[in-house]
Amino acid sequence: MASMSFNFEENVDRSRELKRRKRRKIETVNQDRAKNNQIRWRSIAEQQTYSSKLVEALRHVRQTSAASNVSSRSRAIRETADKVLAISARGRTKWSRAILTNRLKLRLKNHKKANAKPRMASPGNRRSNNPPNGVQKKRLPALERRTRVLRRLVPGSRKLSLPNLLEEATDYISALEMQVRAMASVAEHLTGASNLAESSNRLGMSLEHTPQR
Questions:
Q1: Which residues lie within the region annotated Disordered (predicted)?
Q2: From 42, 61, 96, 155, which residue has the greatest number of CB atoms within 10 Å?
Q3: Other residues' Cβ atoms within 10 Å of the Cβ of residue 61
């Protein structure tokens, strides 16, 4: 009887020790991931690589959408910047894969919509999104409301657990910060080149109008 009690206690201690080791391993992995997310997207090399890819993509957009209006061109530039950012992530995150997948789905949807025949919707099939009279939506807790908002902001995160959602959001925010820095650098470079070209043109015109002695 004493031996059975001893074996039971030994098994319980062993189970607790295994759980502690597993918990430490998970904490170590999470700390390493958080550290990598802090380092990632902050190096000059990554920013330069993204900037070069972005400039090449924007040149293609400029050539293909030269006759488009300002709104369409701005949307194309924004979509191109996000696409290049997702490609730079190399498919290692949910949000980057979701951006590329959604672009493909949107392209297929627009293609089907352009080729589809128009249909008239009957009044009987229309549904109202308003809730019935006397029915009110339940107010969610503050944490759940904020989690839902975060899921809508981070692409591809609607079905993630809260720890994975926070990890994706951290990486996505770091990537967006790098995108802003890169685009600001590209805009500054293009503005400087434009000002230099304008100054050169003015100098050339002034030299042409200068009377020769």
A1: 112-141
A2: 96
A3: 16
What torsion, rounded to 10 degrees, do the Cα atoms 27, 32, 33, 37 define?
Answer: 140
Find out whether 168 and 93 touch, Cβ atoms under 8 Å. Answer: yes
Q: What is the structure's pLDDT at 149?
A: 93
Structure tokens at 90: 């190399």
8 Å CB contact between 61 and 83? no
**How far apart (Å, rounded) are the C-alpha atoms in residues 158 and 150?**
9
The secondary structure element, H or E, covering residue 15 is helix 2-39
Query: Could you tell me where the DSSP H helices lie in 40-161?
Result: 44-64, 70-88, 94-115, 142-153
For residues 184 and 165, the answer to whether their CB atoms sit within 8 Å is no
Nearest alpha-carbon partner for 174 in 57, 9, 47, 63: 47
